[in-house]
Amino acid sequence: MKKETPAQKAIRKQNQPKTKKEYFLWVLPFLILVFIFSYFPLHGWIYAFYDYKAPLKLSQCEFVGLQWFKTLFGNKTQVAQLMQVMKNTFAMSLLGIATSILPVFFAMFLNEIKCKWFKTLVQTLTTLPNFISWVLVYSIAFCLFSNTGMVNTLLQNAGIITTPIKFLDSDSHTWLWMLLWNTWKGLGWGAIMYLASITSIDQELYEAARVDGAGRFSLMKNITFPALMPTFFVMLMLSIGNFLNNGMDQYYVFQNSFNKEHIQVLDLYVYNIGMTGGSLSMATAISALKSIVSVVLLTVVNWISKKTRGESII
Length: 314
What we know:
There is one protein chain. The chain is mainly alpha-helical. The chain contains 15 helices and two strands. The protein is globular and about 70 Å long. The mean pLDDT is about 85.
């Protein structure tokens, strides 16, 4: 029998099917990262059952049980404030879900650009804002829309207005402004997944449709758009599961004494109570309830998906 060379042994070993143990070892580092950053911090929920006073140790603080949860729903002022915060959270989440179809259309139209350099330029310019921090975004907004910003200066010099328009230090249309900034920042990034999905569509479908006389918009309507719908519905269900997670950065940098009533979403409210108000235990209690509700929402959405589409996301 002819002896195998080292190269042949390496090729034979590479072609052998991987065992379950090998696949598990590949996934293990990512499981460890998920545990460290997603599950291990949950032990901090214990602060919700103590009257924690920084910088004391937890053992030096009084155990109060469910007192913070009772206070959260027992104080009328606290309940009224929480209801306004939930109203803001629901409004921003619903607006985000309503506009989640925009990356689909953007990816479809971007895919139709035949000039390669122009397509790359548009995709780069629309994706770049995702990597800009909200602090820099607010700096841009301040330079453009403050009382002495470029927009007000141009309008005043043109004689269109006599007094500056209060874009930032006003409570009017707060939800709309936040939605527009969020769309500008995430539109290009959200389209990347749909652009990847478009590349997996069988090109023979397009060729057959062109033979039948289908135009560009007809191809988009009858082939591209239906092919993107499975991906869109998965992303939509994940968005519903994260319904209460609006994030904090955007609203934190744009908040001021004028728009605080309508810009304070749940994540920002938790931060303000914990860091500004000094009640870390109350903030932990609200955060724990938010996480539990989010898990329930994700479970319900997964059940609905399984019943309606025959597929689950978890």
